[in-house]
Amino acid sequence: MAKNRQHVAEFMDKVMVDGANMRKEDTYFSYKGVLYPTALCNPETLQALESFEARMDDVVLAGYPKTGTNWLDHILSSLESAATKYTEEEMKQRIAIEKELALVPRLEFGDPEMCKRLNKYPYRRILLTHLHPHALPTSIFKNKAKVLVLIRNPKDTAVSYFHFSNNLFFLPTSTWDQFFTDFMNGKVGCGSYFDYVAEWDKYVNDANIMAICYEELKEDLNLGLKKIAKFLGFSLTEEEIKSVAEKSSFKAMKEKSSETHGSFGDTFFRKGTVGDWKSLFSEAQNQEMDRRFEECLAGTKLGVKIKYDTYCKV
Ligand code: A3P
C-alpha cells in the first residue's frame, strides 16, 4: 500500500524458496471450480475472505494474472500518496504498520489471519486481487468500495502468462502449445480468462466500478492516470500526474524491481509491450482465439473496450 515494499519483496522471496521444493502434482489446488497456485494461496484463506469486511474508502484493483496488476498497483499507490499528501512521518508509520501486519500483495495470498490483520490497517487500503467477482467478499459490493477492473487483450495475456509460469519453480513448466491449450481451457492459476472478463462485464456499468485497459495506458499513460484519479476522487495537479507517469514507466519500474519485488522482479517486468503474441501464436492458435473471443466476449462492454481487432489481428 505504501511505496516501500520491502516486506512484499521478502514475502516473494520466501514463496520462491518454498516453491522450489514443490511436487508437480501439488502445484495447484481447486477451490469452487477455479485453480489456485498452492505456493501463494490456500483454501482456508479463500474461505476466510467470505466474511472480510470491506470499507467504503477501500480501493480494489481487480485484474486477471499478467494483465499489468503490478504496474497498476504502483500507479494506484503513487496516486493515492500524492493525493493524500502524507507527511514523511505518516509515510514511515504506514510502512512500519504494513510490515508489522505482514500484509501480502494480493487479497487471496497468504494465511487466513490476513483478513483480521487487514482490519487493523488504519489508512486507506488498496486491495489487489485476481479473484473472479463471485469469489470476492460480498462486502466489497455491498459497502460500495471503488473497484478498478484491469483488462488486457487475451493474446498478450496468454503469452505473458506462459513466460511467467516457465520462469517460476512453483508453477508447471510447459511448451507454448501445451500452455495455450491449458489457457484456453482455464487450466491455469485463477481459472479462465474468458469467464473472468465475462463475469466482470456484468458489473462495469455500476457507479463504483471502472474498467481500464493495459493497452490504453500504454497509448497514453497521462490520460489513463487522469481517468483513474477522477474515478477515485483524487485531486492532482498536471505536475503530480506527470511525475507519477514518469515513475511508472516500464523502464523506471524494471530498474527498481529487485528492490520492490525481490527475486520475482525480472519475471514480473519482462517486456511491457503490446503485440508480443505475434512471437508465439501459430495461425491455428490465432484462429482458435479469434473464435473463442467472438463466442464469449465480442459485443460485450468489456469485449468492445479490449479493441480486439486493433490489438489481436494481424
Ligand atoms: P509482459 O510479460 O508482456 O512483459 P502482472 O503484473 O499482472 O503480473 O502483469 C505483468 C505484465 O505487465 C508483464 O507483461 C510486465 O512486463 C507488464 N508490466 C509491468 N510493469 C509495466 C509497466 N510499467 N509498463 C508496461 N507494462 C508493464
Set down the secondary structure blueprint.
Layout (H helix, E strand, L loop, with lengths): L5 H14 L8 E4 L2 E4 L5 H6 L10 E5 L5 H16 L3 H13 L13 H6 L6 E4 L9 H4 L3 E6 L2 H14 L8 H9 L8 H9 L7 E5 H6 L1 H12 L5 H10 L2 H6 L1 H5 L3 H4 L14 H14 L4 H5 L2 H5 L2
Parallel strand pairs: 3-4, 3-5, 5-6
Antiparallel strand pairs: 1-2
Helix pairs in contact: 3-12, 11-12
This protein binds adenosine-3'-5'-diphosphate (A3P).
The site of adenosine-3'-5'-diphosphate has 21 residues, from helix 3, helix 7 and helix 13.
Order of helices and strands: HEEHEHHHEHEHHHEHHHHHHHHH
CATH superfamily: P-loop containing nucleotide triphosphate hydrolases
Helix content class: 40-55%
Distance between the termini: 39 Å
What fold name goes in the CATH topology slot? Rossmann fold
What's the number of domains? 1
The molecules bound to the chains, other than polymers, are: adenosine-3'-5'-diphosphate
Given as residue ranges, the uncertain stretches (5+ residues, pLDDT < 50) are none
Counting helices, strands and paired strands, the structural category is: alpha/beta
Shape: globular
Radius of gyration: 19 Å
Main sheet characteristics = 4 strands, parallel
Given this structure, which CATH class is correct? Alpha Beta
Question: What is the mean predicted local confidence, pLDDT?
Answer: 93
Determine the strand fraction and express it as a percent band: 5-15%
